[in-house]
């Protein structure tokens, strides 16, 4: 008995394999690439493989290797249960276009609409993605939210995740009126409670009082399936979930979905090392490494160090934040982080290290240097994640240590203007997410979205790295632009390398998984400025076509 | 009645774990303890008298996770075990003031005390370290009591320097020098029942020279104004003052809990009709009677 062979005929196939960079036909067998070639080659193939069928559905489309998102979070599959209130438009996994709210009044209108659509007047209305940084930091008040509803608790989590706005109903339920003595329950000059809640105590107590669940962090089979659809919509066939407690429940959810024959993406969770004490964590990651399947790749470890730059919680070197804000916060005392990094390295485990500010990236490079000197670890592929403020010296050191960088190119568009004006100032903002420097100094590069922090769309991320345009149209660091070829490499093989999956995915090459992104145009023909306008029609995973849920415009971005 | 919460903060090496263990050894059996298990040395669980069911781990991880897995959920689980007191050990980078906000917001809880430890031998170096200086400094925000630990190991000039730093970082806060975080246990435990018993105060000989204890008893009602004026004017040296107060304006006896400048007054329906207060101060000469007299005098 022979297994059938399917040949996908496309307008163009960009393989990312330099031996056969361009083709029109790809033969697939048993979910893997059997051959790559042209119409002439097809004649030969028909001779060898009599049960070959030609699939013409992509005859007018362009195929690329399925994109690899080396830094995203499966939380994307869960957040859309709540209302999105973003300044920029983005697509839900189901394809609806949400957000794009340009004023606080539009935010309130959207809330009122959602309120009207809910039947029970007491059900909490929970929203996310609100970011006052785009509204000149104007404060929203409980009185504004009371105009939406006085009976229904309304809880809005800011994009930073460190601040909430709530209506009077929530304050009442959580006993937050009167003298609480809590700094996190904000008051205005006249002593009126504003409804803005900061930091974990006030935020937790508000959430708890409304009885609303902590949706954001849940990983279950349904969120993973929604996350997979988001991946298809973006042309992604291999996606990370880069901070996962990976307890038994989460592991079971992962195993369940990835064993379903129609699950739509390969998924790579990273074990959250700081959520376990070191000995328990090491034991657990070793257990995880021996598990998994074709669609589930375990064994990655995540280490958090600092916070975020736009939230002013990243750790910066001198002179600190441009606007004088105090330095950010460490997740753990640096010495503890160093001990942990050494312990995982000594066991031969690859780490993905969240470092936003330049003090964090410098510190982690020093830790890795010590760790690698004490316990040499060939082909470690330790990767600095975000690494947004690293300068040339840090990239040189990373290259010397064999440390990779996964840069947060989307930040340039979404927060570049704020970095220029508030957080870093012109000089450091120009060198943020320095893709060109990283490549020039020989660092293995990937670029990412950190979905749901910004939308999942590797072509958009590539557009950011190529054009470096902010939302208002400023070019941030001309000298750090990279070529379309380099950007496409970063979202395919570059990312696959950092996940230690480059032998399986990242290029269309004989023997690799038949994972493709299906595009309406050729990224190497449209020019760098149009990368974000290419429409993703879907993906092919192990030879199985998957269809995008997004109809109409492909662009995540409104004109500046 | 609300459950008293004690929060212990301090950077690595300040003696936080030692202090937590001391408190646990002296605490009522049903003390729930929230510990950050990621730390250098774990709490000696033998000392947790009620065993594992009263110990709750605070996992580390990213800040976004603190909503789902941090202090809030741990307190929620702890409350289900009906504890008499709750003791929370902040992580090495945790800001005790922010943790204490849970106790201020949750009606089931009462913030008893925030204690932040400082390492007398290392404070100066830590504060100047660009990697951790600001983190260490922030931990003193809102502390009721700063414990300058390892005082025996610090050279005299280092000790002076440490006091200078603390005065600058936390002006007006009470600072106590210790060795091995050795503090009088009746200062640290929110619910020492002995304090309400009549009879002579137990004499803690080890600490006798540094700390003064006083007791005041009277059945003459005190005007609320006098009491409040006294509390406001209490010297820095008074660390804890607690007991029953018979107020002229209130039909019911009130329970007073004063810790390092913060106080609460709640009705105590089962208390005898009298004023009985006990204090512990870092000044052996402090007396409650004297303080009350000064206020009564200036009010009249
Ligand atoms: Zn991150
Ligand atoms: Zn992330």
From TrEMBL, chain A:
CDD domains: YtcJ_like (cd01300). Pfam families: Amidohydro_3. GO terms for molecular function: hydrolase activity, acting on carbon-nitrogen (but not peptide) bonds. InterPro entries: Amidohydro_3, Metal-dep_hydrolase_composite, Metal_Hydrolase, YtcJ-like. Residues 62-545 form the Amidohydrolase domain. This is Amidohydrolase 3 domain-containing protein.
Automatic annotation (TrEMBL), chain B:
Pfam families: cobW, CobW_C. Keywords: Chaperone, Hydrolase, Nucleotide-binding. GO terms for molecular function: hydrolase activity; nucleotide binding. It comes from the Bacteria. Coiled coil: none annotated. It catalyses: GTP + H2O = GDP + phosphate + H(+). Belongs to the SIMIBI class G3E GTPase family. ZNG1 subfamily. This is GTPase, G3E family. It comes from Pseudooceanicola nitratireducens.
């Amino acid at each position: 008995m022979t297994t059938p062979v399917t040949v996908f005929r496309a307008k163009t196939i960009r393989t990312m394999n330099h031996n056969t960079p361009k083709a029109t036909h790809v033969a697939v067998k048993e979910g893997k690439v059997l051959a790559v070639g042209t119409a002439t080659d097809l004649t030969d193939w028909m001779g060898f493989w009599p049960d070959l069928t030609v699939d013409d559905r992509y005859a007018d489309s362009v195929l690329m290797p399925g994109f690899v998102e080396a830094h995203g979070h499966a939380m994307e599959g869960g957040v859309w249960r709540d209302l999105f209130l973003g300044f920029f438009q983005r697509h839900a996994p189901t394809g609806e276009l949400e957000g794009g709210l340009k004023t606080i009044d539009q935010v309130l209108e959207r809330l009122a609409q959602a309120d009207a659509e809910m039947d029970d007047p007491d059900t909490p209305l929970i929203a996310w993605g609100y970011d006052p940084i785009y509204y000149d930091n104007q404060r929203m008040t409980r009185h504004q939210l009371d105009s939406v509803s006085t009976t229904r608790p309304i809880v809005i989590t800011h994009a930073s995740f460190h601040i909430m706005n709530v209506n009077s109903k929530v304050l009442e339920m959580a006993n937050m009126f009167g003298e609480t003595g809590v700094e996190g329950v904000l008051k205005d000059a006249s002593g009126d409670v504003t409804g803005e809640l900061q930091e974990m105590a006030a935020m937790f107590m508000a959430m708890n009082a409304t009885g609303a669940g902590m949706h954001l962090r849940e990983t279950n089979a349904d969120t993973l399936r929604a996350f997979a659809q988001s991946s298809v919509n973006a042309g992604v066939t291999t996606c990370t979930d880069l901070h996962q407690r990976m307890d038994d429940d989460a592991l079971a959810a992962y195993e369940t979905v990835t064993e379903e024959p129609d699950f739509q993406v390969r998924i790579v969770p990273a074990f959250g090392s700081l959520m376990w004490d070191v000995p328990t964590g090491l034991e657990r990651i070793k257990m995880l490494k021996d598990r998994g399947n074709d669609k589930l790749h375990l064994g990655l470890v995540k280490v958090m160090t600092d916070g975020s730059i736009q939230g002013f919680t990243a750790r910066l070197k001198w002179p600190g934040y441009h606007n004088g804000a105090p330095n950010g916060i460490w997740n753990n005392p640096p010495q503890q982080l160093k001990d942990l990094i050494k312990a995982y390295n000594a066991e031969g485990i690859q780490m993905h290290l969240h470092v936003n500010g330049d003090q964090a990236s410098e510190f982690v490079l020093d830790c890795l240097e010590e760790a690698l000197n004490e316990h040499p670890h060939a082909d470690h592929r330790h990767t600095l994640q975000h690494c947004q403020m690293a300068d040339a010296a840090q990239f040189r050191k990373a290259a010397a240590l064999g440390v990779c960088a996964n840069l947060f190119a989307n930040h340039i568009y979404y927060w570049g203007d704020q970095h220029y004006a508030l957080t870093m100032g012109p000089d450091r903002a120009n060198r943020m997410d320095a893709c060109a420097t990283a490549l020039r100094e020989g660092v293995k590069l990937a670029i990412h979205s950190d979905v749901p922090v910004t939308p999942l769309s590797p072509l958009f991320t590539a557009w950011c790295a190529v054009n470096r345009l902010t939302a208002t149209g400023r070019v941030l660091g001309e000298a750090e632009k990279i070529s379309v070829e380099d950007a496409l490499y970063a979202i395919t093989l570059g990312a696959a390398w950092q996940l230690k999956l480059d032998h399986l995915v990242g290029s269309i090459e004989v023997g690799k998984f038949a994972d493709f992104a299906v595009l309406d145009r050729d990224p190497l023909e449209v020019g760098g400025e149009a990368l974000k306008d290419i429409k993703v029609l879907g993906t092919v995973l192990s030879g199985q076509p998957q269809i995008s849920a997004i109809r109409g415009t492909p662009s995540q971005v409104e004109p500046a | 009645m609300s459950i008293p919460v004690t929060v212990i903060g301090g950077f690595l090496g300040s003696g936080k774990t030692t202090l937590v263990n001391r408190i646990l050894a002296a605490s009522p059996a049903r003390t729930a303890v929230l510990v950050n298990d990621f730390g250098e040395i774990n709490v000696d669980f033998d000392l947790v008298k009620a065993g594992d069911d009263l110990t709750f781990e605070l996992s580390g991880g990213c800040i976004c996770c603190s909503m789902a897995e941090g202090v809030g959920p741990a307190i929620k689980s702890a409350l289900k075990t009906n504890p008499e007191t709750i003791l929370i050990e902040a992580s090495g980078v945790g800001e005790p003031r922010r943790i204490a906000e849970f106790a201020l917001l949750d009606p089931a809880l009462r913030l008893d005390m925030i204690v932040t430890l400082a390492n007398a031998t290392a404070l100066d170096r830590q504060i100047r370290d660009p990697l951790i200086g600001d983190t260490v400094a922030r931990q003193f925000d809102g502390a009721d009591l700063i414990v300058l630990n390892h005082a025996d190991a610090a050279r005299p000039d280092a000790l002076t320097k440490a006091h200078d730093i603390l005065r600058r970082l936390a002006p007006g806060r009470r600072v106590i020098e210790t060795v091995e975080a050795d503090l009088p246990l009746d200062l640290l435990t929110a619910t020492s029942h002995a304090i309400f018993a009549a009879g002579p105060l137990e004499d803690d000989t080890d600490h006798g020279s540094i700390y003064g204890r006083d007791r005041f008893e009277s059945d003459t009602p005190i005007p609320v104004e006098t009491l409040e004026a006294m509390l406001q004017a209490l010297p820095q040296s008074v660390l804890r003052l607690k007991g029953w107060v018979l107020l002229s304006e209130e039909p019911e006896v009130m329970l007073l809990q004063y810790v390092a400048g913060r106080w609460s007054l709640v009705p105590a329906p089962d208390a005898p009709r009298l004023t009985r207060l006990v204090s512990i101060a870092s000044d052996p000469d402090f007396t409650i009677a004297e303080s009350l007299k000064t206020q009564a005098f200036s009010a009249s």
